[in-house]
Design brief:
The protein is of the alpha/beta class. It folds into 2 domains: 142 residues, 3-Layer(aba) Sandwich (Rossmann fold), CATH 3.40.50.2300; 72 residues, Arc Repressor Mutant, subunit A. It contains 11 helices and 5 strands; from the N terminus they run βαβαβαβαβααααααα. Strands 2-1-3-4-5 form a 5-stranded parallel beta sheet, sandwiched between helices. Helix 3 runs parallel beside helix 4, helix 4 packs across helix 6 and helix 9 crosses helix 10. The radius of gyration is 18 Å and the shape is globular. Pfam families: GerE (PF00196), Response_reg (PF00072). Keywords: DNA-binding, Phosphoprotein, Transcription, Transcription regulation. InterPro entries: CheY-like_superfamily, NreC/VraR/RcsB-like_REC, Sig_transdc_resp-reg_C-effctor, Sig_transdc_resp-reg_receiver, Tscrpt_reg_LuxR_C, WalR-like. This is DNA-binding response regulator, NarL/FixJ family, contains REC and HTH domains. GO terms for molecular function: DNA binding.
Length: 241
Protein backbone atom coordinates (compact mmCIF):
# COMPACT_ATOMS: atom_id res chain seq x y z
CA UNK A 1 0.00 0.00 0.00
CA UNK A 2 1.52 3.36 -0.97
CA UNK A 3 2.26 5.61 1.97
CA UNK A 4 1.13 9.20 1.65
CA UNK A 5 3.70 11.89 2.29
CA UNK A 6 2.76 15.06 4.14
CA UNK A 7 3.51 18.34 2.41
CA UNK A 8 6.91 19.84 3.11
CA UNK A 9 6.73 22.67 5.64
CA UNK A 10 10.37 23.71 5.66
CA UNK A 11 11.04 22.16 9.08
CA UNK A 12 13.98 19.77 9.60
CA UNK A 13 13.00 16.09 9.45
CA UNK A 14 12.16 14.18 12.62
CA UNK A 15 15.26 12.16 13.59
CA UNK A 16 14.46 8.53 14.36
CA UNK A 17 16.46 5.76 16.06
CA UNK A 18 15.64 2.08 15.44
CA UNK A 19 16.35 -0.37 18.27
CA UNK A 20 15.63 -4.00 17.38
CA UNK A 21 17.76 -7.14 17.44
CA UNK A 22 16.47 -8.23 14.02
CA UNK A 23 18.42 -6.58 11.20
CA UNK A 24 15.69 -7.30 8.65
CA UNK A 25 13.10 -5.56 10.81
CA UNK A 26 15.32 -2.49 11.13
CA UNK A 27 15.96 -2.51 7.37
CA UNK A 28 12.23 -2.59 6.64
CA UNK A 29 11.50 0.22 9.09
CA UNK A 30 14.34 2.31 7.69
CA UNK A 31 13.09 1.90 4.13
CA UNK A 32 9.59 3.07 5.07
CA UNK A 33 10.72 5.92 7.31
CA UNK A 34 13.36 7.26 4.94
CA UNK A 35 10.77 7.37 2.15
CA UNK A 36 9.17 10.33 3.94
CA UNK A 37 10.51 13.86 3.46
CA UNK A 38 9.79 14.79 7.08
CA UNK A 39 11.37 11.71 8.69
CA UNK A 40 14.88 10.27 8.70
CA UNK A 41 16.63 7.38 10.44
CA UNK A 42 19.85 8.61 12.05
CA UNK A 43 20.77 5.71 14.33
CA UNK A 44 20.32 1.94 14.67
CA UNK A 45 21.06 -0.41 17.55
CA UNK A 46 20.76 -4.18 17.88
CA UNK A 47 20.14 -4.39 21.63
CA UNK A 48 19.15 -2.22 24.57
CA UNK A 49 22.64 -1.74 25.95
CA UNK A 50 23.96 -0.59 22.59
CA UNK A 51 21.02 1.81 22.33
CA UNK A 52 21.66 3.32 25.77
CA UNK A 53 25.29 3.97 24.86
CA UNK A 54 24.46 5.42 21.43
CA UNK A 55 21.65 7.61 22.78
CA UNK A 56 23.61 9.02 25.72
CA UNK A 57 23.51 12.86 25.66
CA UNK A 58 26.32 14.30 23.58
CA UNK A 59 27.42 10.89 22.31
CA UNK A 60 25.91 10.30 18.90
CA UNK A 61 23.54 12.08 16.54
CA UNK A 62 20.61 13.92 18.12
CA UNK A 63 17.45 11.78 18.12
CA UNK A 64 13.82 12.89 18.46
CA UNK A 65 11.96 9.56 18.52
CA UNK A 66 13.12 6.02 19.31
CA UNK A 67 11.32 2.90 18.10
CA UNK A 68 12.24 0.42 20.86
CA UNK A 69 11.64 -3.33 20.70
CA UNK A 70 10.83 -5.01 24.03
CA UNK A 71 12.49 -8.41 23.77
CA UNK A 72 16.18 -8.02 23.01
CA UNK A 73 19.42 -9.61 24.22
CA UNK A 74 21.87 -7.97 26.66
CA UNK A 75 19.35 -5.35 27.85
CA UNK A 76 15.61 -5.48 27.18
CA UNK A 77 13.60 -2.57 25.84
CA UNK A 78 11.96 -1.74 29.17
CA UNK A 79 15.24 -1.30 31.02
CA UNK A 80 16.72 0.53 28.05
CA UNK A 81 13.74 2.90 27.91
CA UNK A 82 14.13 3.76 31.59
CA UNK A 83 17.84 4.51 31.16
CA UNK A 84 17.38 6.55 27.98
CA UNK A 85 14.64 8.68 29.52
CA UNK A 86 16.53 9.14 32.81
CA UNK A 87 19.65 10.30 30.96
CA UNK A 88 17.90 13.31 29.44
CA UNK A 89 18.93 16.75 30.65
CA UNK A 90 17.66 20.28 30.11
CA UNK A 91 20.45 20.85 27.60
CA UNK A 92 19.95 17.45 25.96
CA UNK A 93 16.31 16.35 26.40
CA UNK A 94 15.70 12.63 26.17
CA UNK A 95 14.08 11.44 22.94
CA UNK A 96 10.51 10.19 23.07
CA UNK A 97 10.32 6.40 23.06
CA UNK A 98 7.73 4.33 21.23
CA UNK A 99 7.71 0.72 22.37
CA UNK A 100 7.25 -1.99 19.75
CA UNK A 101 4.97 -4.73 21.02
CA UNK A 102 2.02 -7.06 20.44
CA UNK A 103 -1.27 -7.31 22.31
CA UNK A 104 -0.22 -10.52 24.05
CA UNK A 105 2.54 -8.61 25.84
CA UNK A 106 0.35 -6.10 27.68
CA UNK A 107 2.35 -6.38 30.90
CA UNK A 108 5.49 -5.33 29.07
CA UNK A 109 3.77 -2.29 27.62
CA UNK A 110 2.59 -1.11 31.02
CA UNK A 111 6.08 -1.56 32.43
CA UNK A 112 7.59 0.35 29.52
CA UNK A 113 5.14 3.24 29.87
CA UNK A 114 5.93 3.42 33.56
CA UNK A 115 9.61 3.50 32.59
CA UNK A 116 8.97 6.63 30.53
CA UNK A 117 7.82 5.46 27.10
CA UNK A 118 5.54 7.89 25.29
CA UNK A 119 3.44 5.24 23.60
CA UNK A 120 3.44 1.92 21.84
CA UNK A 121 3.19 0.49 18.37
CA UNK A 122 2.20 -2.97 17.23
CA UNK A 123 5.02 -4.58 15.29
CA UNK A 124 2.63 -5.74 12.58
CA UNK A 125 1.02 -2.31 12.17
CA UNK A 126 0.66 -0.98 8.60
CA UNK A 127 3.42 1.40 7.46
CA UNK A 128 1.15 4.44 7.55
CA UNK A 129 0.27 3.72 11.20
CA UNK A 130 3.95 3.58 12.13
CA UNK A 131 4.63 6.87 10.36
CA UNK A 132 1.67 8.56 12.03
CA UNK A 133 2.84 7.21 15.40
CA UNK A 134 6.28 8.75 15.00
CA UNK A 135 4.82 12.12 14.05
CA UNK A 136 2.23 11.99 16.82
CA UNK A 137 4.75 11.24 19.55
CA UNK A 138 7.19 13.82 18.22
CA UNK A 139 4.58 16.56 18.39
CA UNK A 140 3.15 15.30 21.68
CA UNK A 141 -0.35 16.10 20.46
CA UNK A 142 -2.08 12.80 21.18
CA UNK A 143 -1.70 9.33 22.57
CA UNK A 144 -0.96 6.74 19.90
CA UNK A 145 -4.02 4.66 18.95
CA UNK A 146 -6.20 6.12 21.73
CA UNK A 147 -8.60 3.21 22.12
CA UNK A 148 -5.80 0.65 22.19
CA UNK A 149 -3.70 2.76 24.54
CA UNK A 150 -6.65 2.97 26.94
CA UNK A 151 -7.04 -0.80 26.84
CA UNK A 152 -3.42 -1.28 27.75
CA UNK A 153 -3.30 1.40 30.41
CA UNK A 154 -6.27 -0.18 32.14
CA UNK A 155 -3.97 -3.10 32.90
CA UNK A 156 -2.00 -0.64 34.99
CA UNK A 157 -4.83 -0.47 37.51
CA UNK A 158 -4.78 -4.23 38.04
CA UNK A 159 -1.05 -4.04 38.73
CA UNK A 160 -1.59 -1.52 41.54
CA UNK A 161 -2.06 -2.74 45.12
CA UNK A 162 -5.63 -2.78 46.43
CA UNK A 163 -4.66 -0.51 49.31
CA UNK A 164 -2.72 2.05 47.26
CA UNK A 165 -2.19 5.12 49.45
CA UNK A 166 -4.41 8.09 48.73
CA UNK A 167 -1.58 10.50 49.37
CA UNK A 168 1.70 11.19 47.64
CA UNK A 169 3.22 13.38 44.93
CA UNK A 170 0.85 12.15 42.20
CA UNK A 171 -2.29 12.73 44.27
CA UNK A 172 -0.98 16.11 45.39
CA UNK A 173 -0.33 17.10 41.77
CA UNK A 174 -3.83 16.04 40.70
CA UNK A 175 -5.17 18.08 43.58
CA UNK A 176 -3.71 21.24 42.03
CA UNK A 177 -5.80 20.84 38.86
CA UNK A 178 -8.80 23.07 38.32
CA UNK A 179 -12.19 21.45 37.69
CA UNK A 180 -11.85 22.08 33.96
CA UNK A 181 -8.31 20.67 33.89
CA UNK A 182 -9.53 17.53 35.64
CA UNK A 183 -12.27 17.20 33.03
CA UNK A 184 -9.68 17.49 30.29
CA UNK A 185 -7.42 14.89 31.93
CA UNK A 186 -10.32 12.43 32.27
CA UNK A 187 -11.17 12.85 28.60
CA UNK A 188 -7.51 12.40 27.67
CA UNK A 189 -7.50 9.14 29.64
CA UNK A 190 -10.58 8.03 27.71
CA UNK A 191 -8.61 8.38 24.48
CA UNK A 192 -10.19 11.59 23.24
CA UNK A 193 -8.24 13.81 20.85
CA UNK A 194 -7.96 17.56 21.33
CA UNK A 195 -10.65 18.08 18.69
CA UNK A 196 -12.99 15.61 20.40
CA UNK A 197 -12.34 17.13 23.82
CA UNK A 198 -13.22 20.56 22.41
CA UNK A 199 -16.48 19.17 21.06
CA UNK A 200 -17.30 17.47 24.37
CA UNK A 201 -16.64 20.63 26.40
CA UNK A 202 -17.92 23.11 23.79
CA UNK A 203 -14.63 25.02 23.65
CA UNK A 204 -12.13 25.80 20.88
CA UNK A 205 -9.34 23.32 20.16
CA UNK A 206 -6.79 26.03 20.96
CA UNK A 207 -8.33 26.31 24.43
CA UNK A 208 -8.04 22.55 24.87
CA UNK A 209 -4.35 22.68 23.95
CA UNK A 210 -3.85 25.35 26.61
CA UNK A 211 -5.57 23.17 29.22
CA UNK A 212 -3.55 20.12 28.17
CA UNK A 213 -0.32 22.10 28.50
CA UNK A 214 -1.27 23.20 32.01
CA UNK A 215 -2.22 19.66 32.99
CA UNK A 216 1.15 18.33 31.82
CA UNK A 217 3.01 21.11 33.64
CA UNK A 218 1.16 20.60 36.93
CA UNK A 219 1.60 16.83 36.82
CA UNK A 220 5.22 17.06 35.77
CA UNK A 221 4.37 14.78 32.84
CA UNK A 222 6.54 14.62 29.73
CA UNK A 223 3.55 13.94 27.50
CA UNK A 224 -0.07 12.83 27.42
CA UNK A 225 0.72 9.18 28.07
CA UNK A 226 2.47 10.00 31.34
CA UNK A 227 -0.46 12.22 32.35
CA UNK A 228 -2.91 9.40 31.62
CA UNK A 229 -0.82 7.00 33.72
CA UNK A 230 -1.16 9.45 36.63
CA UNK A 231 -4.92 9.62 36.09
CA UNK A 232 -5.16 5.84 36.42
CA UNK A 233 -2.70 5.53 39.30
CA UNK A 234 -4.52 8.11 41.39
CA UNK A 235 -7.95 6.65 40.73
CA UNK A 236 -9.19 9.67 38.81
CA UNK A 237 -10.07 7.24 36.02
CA UNK A 238 -11.07 3.60 36.47
CA UNK A 239 -11.32 0.76 33.94
CA UNK A 240 -14.56 0.97 32.00
CA UNK A 241 -15.35 4.47 33.16
Amino acid sequence: MPVSQPPADGLPPVRVALVDDQALVRAGFRMVIDSQPDLTVVLEAGDGAQAVRALAPGTGPAVDVVLMDVRMPVLDGIAATAQVVAAGTEAHPAPRVVVLTTFDLDEYVVAAIRAGASGFLLKDAPPEVMLDAIRTVHHGDAVIAPSSTRRLLEHLVHALPEDAPEAGPAHAAVGTLTDREREVLVLMARGRSNTEIGQDLFVAEATVKTHVGRVLAKLGARDRVQAVVTAYETGLVRPGS
